[in-house]
Amino acid sequence: MTLAVFFGCAFIAFGPSFALFVFTIAREPLRVIILIAGAFFWLLSLLLSSLVWFIAIKASNSQDPSLQRGLLIFGVFFSVLLQEVFRFAYYRLLRKANEGLAAISDDDSSAISVRQMAYVAGLGFGIMSGAFSMINVLSDSLGPGTVGIFGDSQYYFITAALMTLALTLLHTFWGVVFFEGCEKSRWWVIAAVVSLHLLVAGLSLLNPLYEGSLPPVYVITLPTGVWAFFSSGGSLHSLSALCTRRKAEGESS
Amino acid sequence: MNTSDSEEDSYNERSALVQSESPTIPSYNQDHDMSLPQETDSKRVSGHEFSFLSCLDEPGPVERERASTPDGEEEELTLKYGAKHVIMLFIPVTLCMVVVVATIKSVSFYTEKSSQRLIYTPFEEDPNSVGQRLLNSFLNTIVMISVIVVMTIILVVLYKYRCYKFIHGWLILSSLMLLFWFSFMYLGEVFKTYNVAMDYPTLVMIIWNFGVVGMICIHWKGPLRLQQAYLIVISALMALIFIKYLPEWSAWVILGAISIYDLIAVLCPKGPLRMLVETAQERNEPIFPALIYSSAMVWMVGMADSSNPGSADERQRNEGGARAQEGVESEDDAAQGGRRRYSAEEDLEEDRGVKLGLGDFIFYSVLVGKAAATGGDWNTTLACFVAILIVSVSTIIYGSVMYRLTYTNRDVFLMFKVYYACRV
């Protein structure tokens, strides 16, 4: 039972991102490096925001539950803002690196485009965020016993996995959209990403009420995905071209 | 015999990381009255701004030739190679860390505090008094670092006076101990943890086969993957021993002190590692002999015995990385065997791949293993893992950005590796 939960939740949470990694990133060393650096930037933002939260907790009265809850909410929102700041910082770093790469290359074009970097950076953020959310939960799910003895919801593991999946995908989409917004200097895009992130984080605070947090997050994920697709240059035409090309290839082979 | 200068200037993918001088002539020969090109070669090797090796900074004719080649192509290749080879190193480093963390989390033996200590850390850490504990951990560190310094100096002296056989014997002894004794201990603990009943005859068979094949692979010839696997396994074993027997606070202070020592040893003109590297270059022996993990290697039949003593410098580098006698010995051991293979296949190998000292593996694994052992928290372990990967990437990229101007890819790579080693 525990092993089944472990594998099930692990695959739910990390399956898509693992597939994305294997099929699009693993073969290109530069992308792997950008992925790891993106993960590291997310880690830095988390470290800083948790430091702030930790100091706030230590400085406050630990007996007051509503104060603690308030501090938690503050911590969550501060962390979201800091993550977006670090996303922007990573964007600047990647732009500079890209210019460097382009300058030294033969034909004056970099080996990797900003859009690819946006996708990889977003995925890096997403994978790291998902890993940090999920790893301890997964290792506990292996252990003897399961959740529910003290009245906690029995759906804890699976909703954690589904939430992690949604967040990973969202980070990827936000990465794409964010970088595109920065490139084209569309600041409303950045504001939209930040507010969506804040919204999702706020929804997760509803949490033992899983109906309140999980479906809305997925309702947000799908349009964000579509937005990212169109923002990175996709179009209905290219989608249909993909389908017809497949069909044509299938017929000819 | 030796690649000509013009060949040296063609930077294609294949030659990127090749040592240009081909040591088909066994470098272990007493007379170094080799032809001039070799001299120039070795001068060129060290003749870059690489601060560690600025001893031979007189540019030969090749230098000027090289300077005329387009910078951009070189830099681009450098960065591409940097990226590709960083990735090639991620996998073994990750594997070693995974082995160490998996063992730490499952086999409780390596996290149990025992009253036994290594003789290199004689001061006991008293958990009751913070000040005393701190003092003792610093004293332990001083003892450990002095042991390492003394051994490094001995090795440099041995190498300088060409006592290759002695070094060779030392290496074999240490890898014997690692492959047989430590793996026996490890297997015993794993069986205890999983409650597996095992009889001695079977165990003897297993350990005997494991050890002998390991010795052959590491010191002589063997399939590349097998050799890589053995190097990863012995690094993991070594790291586990350190995690078990180093007292808590001493371990962290030692890790920090080792990094500083590495920097000093490679940067100072009289630093042992630097002298070792310079000596190896003067003798025109490859600087990265045996005790290195090599990601791409091919072994030539019939080149079994260019008994390269140049493992000394690798040993040096790994001494900085190796934390104890056994570690050094075992590293040297593996180094020795790989070294021969390295020189043998140099001409044949098209993509030389990357080489990384086993000391680095051990250092990283100790770091991550300690993080896994001290907390029940997986987040800490994951964070350490990502931080280590970033450190390696940034070191190599920093090196490539700083030193991209006039060096061959090989020089740059050479420089990365030593700088990289001394970061650790």
From TrEMBL, chain A:
Annotated membrane topology: Multi-pass membrane protein
Transmembrane segments: 6-25, 32-55, 67-86, 117-135, 155-179, 186-206, 218-239
A GO cellular-component term linked to this record: gamma-secretase complex
Domain of life: Eukaryota
A GO biological-process term: Notch signaling pathway
Compartment(s) of residence: Membrane
Record-linked InterPro entries: Aph-1
Entry keyword set: Membrane, Notch signaling pathway, Transmembrane, Transmembrane helix
Keyword Lipid biosynthesis: no
Family stated for the protein in its record: Belongs to the APH-1 family.
Physiological role: Potential subunit of the gamma-secretase complex, an endoprotease complex that catalyzes the intramembrane cleavage of integral proteins such as Notch receptors.
Subunit structure comment from the entry: Component of the gamma-secretase complex.
Stated name of the protein: Gamma-secretase subunit APH-1
Automatic annotation (TrEMBL), chain B:
Chief location of this protein within or outside the cell: endoplasmic reticulum
Pfam families given in the database record: Presenilin
Compartment list: Endoplasmic reticulum membrane; Golgi apparatus membrane
Transmembrane parts of this sequence: 86-104, 138-159, 166-188, 200-220, 227-243, 249-267, 287-304, 380-401
Gene3D superfamilies the UniProt entry points to: Presenilin
Entry keyword Ligase: no
One cellular component term from this protein's GO annotations in UniProt: gamma-secretase complex
Membrane topology, from the record: Multi-pass membrane protein
InterPro entries: Peptidase_A22A, Preselin/SPP, Presenilin_C
PANTHER family, per database record: PRESENILIN (PTHR10202), PRESENILIN-2 (PTHR10202:SF24)
Protein name per its UniProtKB record: Presenilin
